[in-house]
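From the thread on structure requests for the teaching lab: each student submitted one protein with a one-line request. Submission from student K.M.:

"Model enoyl-CoA hydratase from Sediminihaliea albiluteola, tokens only."
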Amino acid sequence: MIYQSDALTVERQEGDIAELRFDLQGESVNKFDQNTVNHLTAALDAIEAQDGLKGLLVTSAKPVFIVGADITEFTSIFGSSADDIKGFTATNNTNFNRLQNLPFPSCVAINGFALGGGFEICLACDFRVMSSAAKVGLPETKLGILPGWGGTVRLPRIIGVDEAATWIAGAAEQRAEAALKAGAVDAVAAPEQLRDVALTTLRNAIAGKLDYASRRSAKSSPLPLNDTEAMMAFFTMKQMVAQQAGRNYPAPVKAVEVIEQARGMGLEEALDVEAAGFAELAVTDVAASLVGVFLNDQLLGKKAKSWEKKSDKAIERAAVLGAGIMGGGIAYQSAYKGVPIKMKDINQDGLDLGLSEASKLLAKRVERGRMTPAKMGEVLNSIDATLSYDGFEDVDIVVEAVVENPKVKQAVLAETEQKIGEDAILASNTSTISISHLAKALKRPENFCGMHFFNPVHAMPLVEVIRGEKTSDKAVARTVAYANKMGKKAVVVKDCPGFLVNRVLFPYFDGFSKLLRDGADFQAVDKVMERWGWPMGPAYLMDVVGIDTGVHAGEVMAEGFPDRMKLDFKAAPEVMFENQRFGQKNNIGFYEYVKDKRGKPKKTVTESTYELLAPIVAERTEFSPEDIVDRMMLPMATEMARCLEEGIVGSAAEADLALLFGLGFPPFRGGIFRWMDTVGLEYIAKASEKFAHLGKVYEMTDGMKAKLAAGESYY
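Reply posted by the TA:
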């Protein structure tokens, strides 16, 4: 043994070859935490001190290679200076340079995910052999930063500027076939042959059959582009990347700029440019937010897995009540993810619509080459469309997705309870109706909970699992396990009107209604909020959700929280509803919708909207973008703070992710609590005071005031 630690080992293989094997103890994956970085330094010391070595094989003892840096360590650097951040990247840059400059060739066997720093160490090796089951990539721009251990330097010099810029800016994982075609790896092998192929490659390099010196020279030299070629290439790339990334995500464009700036430099100078770019991005609010989203997602995943472990029974058969678009979407998602499902409706037209929805979604996958026709048939066959309860005694969970009416839901749930096994779970896909209220119709309320999907089911990741007063841990655990199986992000919340997401969405909509009442142009509000980062402004969002649905849900919320959500004026959505303008579902709401060439509804402005609103709104008034944002966001922020303080949601992290996954909250802002931390509670307090006349929903909660007084933040 040449070197041994709890992160990696180095030992001789076949006399003159050393094997550097990553195996981080106590972890399911290898990652470059500070401990591993330090041990790699020591391991390289030991390798360089050895006599008689002729080659180095780099491997992983785990099913994956290395997933990258330890992101949990990133949070400590966000408040640091640029010099401190450069120090964070410097140690491993020195390690990778030493690895690249060993006095003998190196070859890495990539047996699983090699991402970020895990791929960057591969780029520092002379030869790369990849398992056909592995994936490689540089995903750093997804976190608001750029590769910090030589990725922007070595990759362009290995696979060319265009391809490297696309990989880095796009942050996508690359399969073995694509990596080989691009030249990022030298060979692809079946998993069981990977080690042998890597050793053979290394021996050929030792024997002089493969030239590694010229490879090293290319990685350490300027890019082979003249000024004209460079100008044209980088101008085009930056334009394309900027258009795709959008104005709120600076990292992809910065990564291309770093490659451009370092194009005429050698390795050391180019790494300095990369380090400066990394440091510049690392101190941005965007990076803090996106890294926060990543860490929150890990926390949410752990919580969901923890609930799944508590489940005493696997979910193998499911059922959904109510077909149509929502029922069909649930049936599709369940069947596609491997859980056969019965889809029941009271009429054949509903079943036909549900099956049509599932077929349409599957056909799209086939068209895009993501599914074979045979697999599509298999998935469709696992959806059993039925008008009866035959076979319901064998299902493990039933999701009720009928019309949003408490009496109808209670009747359907009570009837269904008699047709299923005593141990089966009943769940309601309700968006606003109290789970505890619905449970009053049931004999086994402990086996009942909410399972609120967001529309469209296949596209929206979030599922709210709602615990009623009598819901058991068993019901929650099995429902979360089912959500996990469906590939959804489950957030467990307590019962209240609107639960979590809709409870905070409707104060946001009320803020919109008050702006229109006071003379704001709905188009102007949409544009400001879209520029702020929302995928669609409030008027457009109402049209997509359905104004009839929104008005009905708004009434439920007003009844539940009359001190904050009962409006004392006629609101714009009511006017739209009274005039049968329901949004996209009947092609006219705030906007009018005409189908484009692809058959998708395209919004256009109609003067009739302004004519209908004229009797209930003030004279047209110009509001500053700052005031529009504050008037829209403060109600959402204060209501979410109440949810946290009341224990409706377990943590700020879960609350923020619920808005990201359920509403499309701008990821670069991290969530509502991350946004409040970014602007500061002092700013929130001033805005709250400024708009206090608009009602209690603009008033800071006691918990918010306490945090402000103590100088605390949510993260």
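TA comment: The chain has three domains: 3-283, 314-495, 502-582+613-710. The first helix runs from residue 34 to 49.
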